[in-house]
Amino acid sequence: MLSSPLKGEDKGEGDKIGYPSPLPSPTGGEGFDISEEDLMSLQNCQKIAECLEGYLLGDVEPEIEIQINEHLLVCHDCRKKLEALESLVELFRKKSIFKPSQSVYEKVRRQIRIKQKSFLPGTSGAQDPTLTPALSLKKGEDKDEGSLRIIKIPIHQGCGRRILTIAASFLLGMILMRAVDLLLFTKKTEKPAVEMRYETRHRYQYSDSIQFYSVPPKNLARI
Amino acid sequence: MVEDYNNLDSFSLYRLFKDNNDEKAFATIYNRFCNGLFNYLVRLIGDWHYAEDILVETFTKLANSNLDNRGSLKAWLYRVATNQAYKLLRKNRVEISLPIELTEHNTSQNEQRLSNWEVQKLLNELPEIYRSVIVLKFYGEMSYQEIADVLCIPIGTVKSRMHEGIRKLRREMGL
Fold first, then answer.
1. pTM value?
2. Could you tell me which residues are beta bridge partners of residue B66?
3. What is the value of ipTM here, to two decimals?
4. For A147, which of B42, B48, B76 is closest by C-beta distance?
């Protein structure tokens, strides 16, 4: 509930803001004969204005409501504010009823039939033991405040998802292995070119196969 | 038989539909809530095509869910519809499009159309959190407790959002 707007009154410049036009005083005096108490309440136009929404919607405590009523009797500005607020609220309260088109219910029926076909045949969603709770519950739907909000999906849909996950992980593993292999291969080839040339020459001249089973071309003439 | 259905509460109708696959029971639930829900969605989103889509989605979800009798069916429907509307508003920029031909006119047509559009423009300029509370209060004709149930927020928050929303509207209108 709202706190009293008339507590902690400030005696500033605001005391003249809501001064009434020649209205009879609620204290019974004539013209501007207003008691000190009423004068104090007039200083709180600002605070009263803040409470007007609650006042209009009936959300304020009874004693505050009485105080606002008393204030409204003497304050012309606040009455004007209240009238403006009332007109605003009435704008929203105006009954403009939108109705959905006839085709909407047909669409719902069609959707339900499509969904039911995707379920296992011959079973109702409530008692079907082959149904598992969906993992994709939306925010706010699973909160307790009302009824259970579990959307059931058939097991074969879950299986498909599982198979897809396994296939994807297998592929990922293959890619990773290939990447490691390539990395090792490139490390082998990163040796200096000079050394490679030397090794090649060395192997050509002194390799077992050449030494024992073939004759170098330069020695052919000698033979 | 239909008269009997109208006397039943929403949850009994729902159980009839789920257990016996009774389409009439589902149709009764639909007729009971569709107008209020559609009105709420049109005001919340500002576009009646989207509102119809969400209405279809909400009732389809109801048919495919398995609810127990804790809480109210009405609050559940409004909550699902609100979540869907929020999701839509986050993804798309919605232009105002009202079902003019579907409006029931009390006053002259042009006058009503203009004021409806103006009111919707004002609402669309409000942040979603204030808009949903104001629309549920004025168009859904819900109590603060019901709004708190729908939006899953404390009743004090509902009141403060309500007051802040009206204050913002006042400022927008220069009142």
1. 0.57
2. A150
3. 0.72
4. B76
